[in-house]
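TASK: fixed-backbone design
INPUT:
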């Protein structure tokens, strides 16, 4: 019951449409219910009169019925078109809410959840929810039995009256075939648009660390909203076609009623049909034209829809582990003094200690390199600074401010990251560089590329900065992708820099170019570097050797070599 209440709450923005939709449905039902009563009344009164009285009343009866079924058809159009659009808007609202929530969820959530399932919740589950929001129970087999059986009896009762009805059925079938082709086109457009949404979602989720590192959730939301709105427009076109299809079919059905009554009345007047047969005919017509559309079992639809809604709630009701605390302040006028004060850490799903009472101080504008075996906690130390995770004990500060007291957006805007695994978004070189500053001018983008030593390479390409990089940058080499990531950070221009094994996956020639760019990037910035190639960190102000037992050694390149300890052994390998 609680789940159902939450589901109903999504109708609130569309209450006016919903109530008028119910009103139109009531009008449709009233018109359907009025016909048998009208037939019964006419059978007892008008059709028992003389020929001239019957013939004189038929034109007026024709106009009344025509007006009734025209109104009914308009109501059917509203129910089919606007009612479905209402469901599509609810689906859009839920999808937007879910996407925004995905962007807020912490890294720990993505470490334990499958992205395919997450996409399913965003697409397939929400489609089932949308269907539940407007459709009722339908059953194809029962409908086909009623249609075929009713028409057989119609011919048995009176063939003369059945022939014009058969003509109407043929016209309705021809119209349906023609309209169905249009509907198939709109359904195809729907699939294309939902594919665009899936692509946008996959792109963002795969690069969520880059999105959050650059605090570009709003940029991704804007891109996603573009695809989401395009999908809504395609569904509107689809439902307009459905509205025309359903309302026209209803009009044909109304014409069957009209033909039955008017032509049947004429046959009675001519002595070619009995009034009792006409009443019976109307009953079979009523059975014949009851819902023609494909019927779906209500229980199955209810189960699918509510099951999808429960899966949806599982996500939106999951609180992000990392979020702004009440009263969080913006980080401004940053000098770049970074301090890890007696920091301990373990992951929420694992009690094994990763860091224990680690203390590191990096003065503004200075550089620190972290080296050591895998599993020592080097990447974890870097991840604590932008609050991808929170410390278990101790604190991390920037200019004396605890990072937990700062807004996430302002904190991450002050930190630039260059990682080993570069993620490029589907688009051009220009768009990927501009990710560091979405409102950057062309000159700023080109200046960032020049400082990253990639302008010459770009200008040799046929489309230069408008060159398509391919999905995840598949059209570029590792070194080219890495230089784009460096250009992003040049463009972002943060006071604090994290270099996480930025050259470890490159060949020697690419490494020389990248290292030159990184040295330029690190000038006058507080820099934390993780490196396996120790030749790249010799100029660091301090080198810290981290093992599973914590900080084993610290000092400059020269002092650590003189100690002839762990660092010296690594360096001399």
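OUTPUT:
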């Amino acid at each position: 019951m609680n789940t159902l209440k939450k589901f109903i709450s999504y109708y609130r923005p569309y209450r006016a449409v919903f109530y008028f939709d119910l009103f139109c449905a009531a009008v449709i039902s009233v018109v359907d219910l009025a016909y048998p009563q009208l037939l019964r009344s006419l059978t007892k009164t008008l059709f028992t009169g003389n020929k001239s009285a019957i013939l004189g009343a038929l034109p007026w009866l024709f106009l009344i019925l025509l007006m009734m079924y025209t109104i009914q058809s308009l109501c059917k159009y509203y129910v089919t078109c606007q009612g479905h659009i209402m469901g599509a808007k609810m689906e859009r609202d839920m999808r937007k809410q879910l996407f925004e929530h995905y962007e807020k969820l912490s890294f720990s959530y993505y470490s334990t959840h499958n992205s395919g399932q997450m996409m399913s919740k965003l697409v397939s589950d929400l489609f089932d929810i949308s269907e539940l929001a407007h459709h009722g129970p339908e059953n194809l087999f029962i409908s086909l039995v009623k249609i075929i059986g009713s028409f057989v009896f119609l011919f048995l009762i009176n063939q003369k009256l059945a022939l014009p009805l058969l003509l109407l059925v043929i016209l309705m079938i021809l119209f349906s075939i023609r309209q169905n082709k249009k509907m198939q086109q709109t359904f195809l457009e729907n699939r294309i648009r939902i594919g665009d949404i899936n692509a946008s979602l996959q792109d963002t989720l795969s690069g969520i660390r880059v999105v959050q590192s650059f605090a570009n959730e709003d940029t991704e939301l804007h891109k996603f909203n573009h695809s989401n709105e395009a999908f809504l427009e395609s569904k509107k076109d689809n439902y307009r076609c459905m509205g025309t299809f359903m309302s026209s079919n209803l009009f044909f059905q109304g014409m069957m009623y009209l033909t039955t009554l008017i032509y049947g009345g004429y046959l009675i007047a001519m002595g070619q049909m009995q009034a009792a047969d006409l009443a019976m005919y109307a009953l079979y017509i009523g059975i014949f034209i009851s819902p023609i559309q494909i019927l779906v079992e209500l229980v199955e639809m209810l189960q699918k829809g509510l099951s999808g809604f429960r899966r949806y709630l599982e996500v939106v009701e999951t609180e992000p582990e990392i979020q702004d605390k009440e009263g969080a302040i913006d980080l401004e006028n940053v000098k770049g003094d970074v301090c890890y004060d007696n920091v301990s850490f373990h992951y929420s799903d694992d009690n094994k200690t990763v860091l224990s009472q680690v203390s590191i101080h990096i003065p503004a504008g200075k550089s620190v390199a972290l080296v050591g075996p895998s599993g020592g906690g080097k990447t974890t130390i870097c991840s604590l600074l932008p609050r991808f995770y929170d410390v278990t004990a101790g604190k991390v500060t920037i200019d004396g401010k605890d990072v937990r007291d700062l807004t996430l957006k302002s904190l991450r805007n002050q930190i630039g990251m260059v990682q080993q695994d570069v993620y490029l978004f589907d688009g051009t070189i220009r768009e990927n560089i501009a990710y560091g500053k979405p409102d950057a001018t062309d000159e700023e983008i080109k200046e960032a590329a020049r400082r990253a030593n990639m302008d010459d390479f770009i200008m040799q390409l046929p489309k230069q900065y408008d060159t398509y990089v391919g999905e995840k940058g598949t059209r570029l080499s590792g070194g080219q992708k890495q230089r784009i990531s460096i250009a992003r950070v040049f463009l972002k221009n943060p006071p604090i820099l994290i270099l996480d094994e930025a050259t470890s996956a490159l060949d020697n020639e690419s490494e020389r170019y990248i290292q030159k760019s990184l040295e330029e990037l690190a000038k006058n910035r507080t820099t934390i570097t993780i490196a396996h190639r120790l030749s790249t960190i010799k100029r660091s102000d301090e080198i810290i050797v981290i093992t599973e037992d914590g900080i084993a050694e610290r000092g400059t390149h020269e002092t650590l070599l003189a100690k002839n300890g762990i660092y010296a052994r690594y360096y001399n390998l």
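COMMENT: The two ends are 66 Å apart (CA to CA).
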